[in-house]
Amino acid sequence: MSWRDIWQGRPAAQNAAIGFPNNSRSFDPARRVVLFWGSNGALEAAFYIGEAALRRLHPDMPSDEAAMLAAFDSARDRINAVAAKVYDRGRKGVYELQDSDF
User: N or C: which terminal CB in the chain sees fewer CB atoms within 10 Å?
Assistant: First the structure.
């Protein structure tokens, strides 16, 4: 994409793949989601996955913070792959991974 495209407001092509070099994740108890981040060059994208989606990956998962973080960690590769597909659907500020994505 050229500066002219940017200046004229043309949408940017998402040709650079999102990566997940940072293994950090956190639990938001109010929303009952696990938050994590990806990077596309200089851009950072925030993602979250809720209890229903984690339960789809781990049906017997208890409903506490430690269990949700452990479920996330054990399925991280699959979650990152799905997150990359969700990211490719279009630019947003925050990306939600839903149970229907799995």
Answer: N
